[in-house]
Predict the 3D structure of the following.
Amino acid sequence: MTLPAWFKSKGFWNLPNTITVVRCALVPVMVALLWDEPTRNEAVLACVIFVGAMLSDIVDGYLARLWNLQSTIGAFLDPLADKLMVITTLVMLIPHGWVPAWMVVVLESRELAISGLRSIAMSEGMVIAAGSMGKFKTAYQSTALGFLLWHYHTIGIDAHSVGILLLWVSMFFSLASGAEYFWGFWKYNQRAAAKAATTGS
């Protein structure tokens, strides 16, 4: 089967970047669905959109690597689309009482702190790779939000309670991975300071 040429285009409009742009475009749709307290059908639709967006993140990253289409704009848009979707969902659930506001503050404060740390690290030529706890955080957080969006009891399962439980687990890994980032940054600076002292620079 021959794929359309634009799928693998080296320009901006290739398939991986298009998937990322669609994820960004779905953020306002989530806002509209969650503006008022969602009905069961609206909650299910919001859940499907969110889960689809999270899965598409895996797909576009895989395709970009498979077809060697990594780019600076793609590296910027891909995490931006994820953060917009997650932050929007968390914030929109607060007024309905579906997620505690303080948990959202803690989770997003961690994201801001790590983003700032990464910017400082990059300015010093240091790259902080995502650790295993960060990956656990992402997995649990995405799963938690899926259950929170589903919300309503289904076949005897309290989706909301499951979502809150998973969000607690996500918060643990979020804070633990944040501490891991800061520890790695501190060790890097200690090594750099020791090297500078040894060389006299």
In short: The chain has two domains: 10-96, 99-201. Helices lie at 15-34, 40-66, 72-93, 101-123, 132-150, 159-199. The first helix runs from residue 15 to 34.
